[in-house]
Each structure stands twice: as C-alpha cells, then as structure tokens.
Amino acid sequence: AVAKTDPYMFLAIALGGAALFLCLCVACIKAITGGSAKSAQYSKVEAQGASDTTAEEQERQDILADVYGNATGDGDGHDGGHSPEGKNAEIDEAWQAIQRECESS
Length: 105
Known about the structure:
- With about 100 residues, this protein is mainly α.
- The chain contains 3 helices and no strands.
C-alpha cells in the first residue's frame, strides 16, 4: 500500500528550507563583513605633528599647482594660454607630476 502524502507538506518543507537558507546567508554575510553597524564607525587618526601636516599640505599644493596650473604664483613661466601647443605642454607637465608622485610613494 502506498501512503498518500499531503501536497501542502511539500510546500511547508520547501518554505522552511528557504527560510533556513536565507538565515544562513545573512549569518555568513554578517560574519564576513564584521557583524554589526558599530564596526563601520571609524576612529580619528591622530596627527604626528603640526610640521608634518604643514609639509604634506605644501607638497599637496605643489602637486595641484603642477597638475592644474600655476596657482601658487611661483613664476615658473605658465601664462595660462589655450593654444594646442600650450595644452600639450600642460598635459605633459601634469603627467610628469603624476609620475613623480608615483615614484616617491
């Protein structure tokens, strides 16, 4: 004799399995990412010294001046011209500034 099974029992088993699978996925994601939202808070990094930050800021300003033009006014000959030759020279200088920064880091 073959036992007659209820089709709703298969549905209940499938839904229960899906819920269990969903809970397992959420638990794995929380374990991988570090858990709660509190772990996403960052602490402020203390500066080593005012002279270090001043030097870094000056270096940053020099790099920006090299890349975006002579904003510091140190008189290195940029006239701000918009000729095609001038644009290529500015692009070349920007590329050289990027390369210098990459080599120094």
